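Worked example 2:
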Amino acid sequence: MSELFLHIFNMSIAASFLLLAVLLFRVLFKKAPKWINVLLWGIVAVRLICPFTIESALSLIPSAQTVSPDIMMDATPKINSGIPILNAVINPVISGSFAPDPATSANPLQILIPVLSIAWIAGIAGMLLYTVISHFHVKSKIGTAVLLRDNIFQSEHIVSPFVFGIVKPKIYLPYRITNQEMPYVLAHEQAHIHRKDHIWKPLGFLVLTLHWFNPLVWLGYILFCRDIELACDQKVIAALDRGQRADYSQALLACSVKKHRFAACPPAFSEVGVKTRVASVLQYKKPALGVILAAVAVSLALAIGFLTSPLSSESIGIQSLSAKRLLSNKIELNIRYSHPTGGYSVRALSENEGKYCGDGMRSYDGALGKYRIMIKFGDTDPSEAFTRNFPIGDVVEIKNAPINIRAKRVSPEDHGFVLYLGFDTPIQIEETDYTMLNALGGTLRIQLEEE
């Protein structure tokens, strides 16, 4: 349970960066269509609920895992927010407050995190209970509703129009709505149904339920509810003239209600940000094409940047080395890599050449065999997996190779490394000057020919 809680906690922190970006977007693109805001909240929801993400060099998330699952057992517990200044401020406090007690060998986080996990589950249970109670409270009010026509009902027990139902949504109206207000109210509620808001809002509340401990998610849900109302308003008033928009605003005011509780119920016509919506309706101007295109472009950039995670050390650099036989006397070396920062060169070494980059000038000890080639990666480092498989200075046999191939990795510089390959039989190779690797990754194929 603790690992699950930490996983959700890390997802919530990562999504918080996207939440902040969407809040900034709403400020900078006030004139953009409101449906774009709703779309962005959908992207936030995906980030909050998707258990995995794609790693990308374009990611704008500082850290995919702020709190490591091993923090409960760490002798010096710390976080990795991806922001060095923040780490420098927080980690001394965490290490000082939650370091294991030498006398008891107990890590306080082994107690605190399970307690927080239980509190998280209890909060989810409370939110779900509230949802169930709210659902049946609404159903009790509309139990005596009278069919007006189609999927439209009227009830004397409700004070504001709303859509209720997931599979077959129905529109419920209070009796006090006048004939002049009726067309505008129905147009708004039908826009909700057309946009599937009766589905998206409950789903948004479920996402909030999962991340109830994050204040930014609460703020995001409140603004999401406001944005779906504004988006529906814009959808309706786009076809109205100035006089009809004034009547629409009057309908908003006439149907407005004072909210007494947090709304987990379906979209209601006039219970979210009425003053803001009236001002938006009266001041509405069709968004310029340039504003729409800019907003869409920024939204796409936010999706790419925040739905992906930063590259891990396992995902950067040289990944693996293998070999296979192509023909009776031809062998292909396959070096898989991703996101390199430089290039490579290949050359054969003479039998007695003893220059080992990083080791200085010395006589060849013969550990790799009589015949050798040198592959130099100028700026690309090995991945952590490659480093484990090929420790510096060790001679490693290449597994499943068609002939005996031994490898030795050395690091002559701060960046990059040299890989020596040794053979028992003479080989020919086409030497390569410094050549850039594919920036997106791939497989470097080097062909050898046995003499």
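Confidence is low (pLDDT under 50) at residues 357-361. The first helix runs from residue 2 to 28.
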